[in-house]
């Protein structure tokens, strides 16, 4: 179920809303995530990196809210990204607010960010991709910056798909043990806190640079 063919077949059947989660929760997640980052201190002059922006479900709100050029996103699925722009924003807003959106994951980014968002990304990554992104977050986050992310935390049962998997698993989900995530964050001198914030299925985690 983790093959590229399976993912491609699933994408073909999905529209730009269904691809990023249940369609009935499309607006729910847009409002929830925007409210969460706003309550965490996101201001219009801050810079934000949205990892896996999808069809700009919440990105449309960040683009309008943030100052021109302050929204940066990575989304490798160009089809749903373009559909999000077409049906949720329009080209006039893109021209006005000048968001930086790249579809190549490994492309270098030459700026640092006040906030990084990774919603429902690490719920689909194997250990290799999780470490790849933690390393990048370490380098992309300003000294006092904040990364807000979600995980599926495995609190019971044997070690199964999470820590042993490699690559990208979608739409299937991946579970991690908290102590394994903590170990990996410590490797890159990052700290974390589990937050009991609203979410129907995932656990929020705030990641910051270690302070001494």
């Amino acid at each position: 179920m983790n093959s590229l063919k399976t993912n491609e077949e699933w994408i073909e059947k999905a529209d730009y809303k269904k691809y990023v989660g249940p369609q009935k929760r499309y607006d729910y997640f847009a409002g929830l995530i925007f409210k969460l980052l706003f309550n965490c201190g996101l201001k219009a002059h801050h810079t934000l990196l949205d990892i896996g922006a999808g069809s700009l479900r919440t990105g449309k709100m960040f683009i309008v809210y943030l100052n021109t050029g302050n929204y940066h996103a990575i989304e490798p699925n160009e089809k749903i990204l373009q559909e999000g722009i077409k049906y949720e924003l329009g080209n006039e807003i893109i021209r006005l607010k000048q968001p930086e959106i790249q579809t190549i994951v490994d492309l270098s980014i030459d700026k640092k960010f006040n906030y990084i968002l990774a919603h429902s990304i690490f719920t689909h990554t194997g250990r290799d991709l999780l470490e790849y992104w933690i390393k990048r977050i370490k380098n992309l986050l300003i000294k006092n910056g904040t990364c807000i992310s979600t995980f599926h935390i495995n609190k019971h049962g044997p070690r199964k798909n999470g820590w042993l998997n490699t690559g990208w698993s979608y739409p299937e989900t991946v579970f991690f043990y908290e102590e394994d995530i903590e170990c990996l964050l410590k490797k890159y001198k990052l700290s974390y806190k589990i937050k009991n914030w609203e979410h129907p299925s995932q656990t929020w985690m705030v990641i910051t640079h270690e302070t001494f």
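The longest helix spans residues 26-39. The first strand starts at residue 48 and ends at 51.
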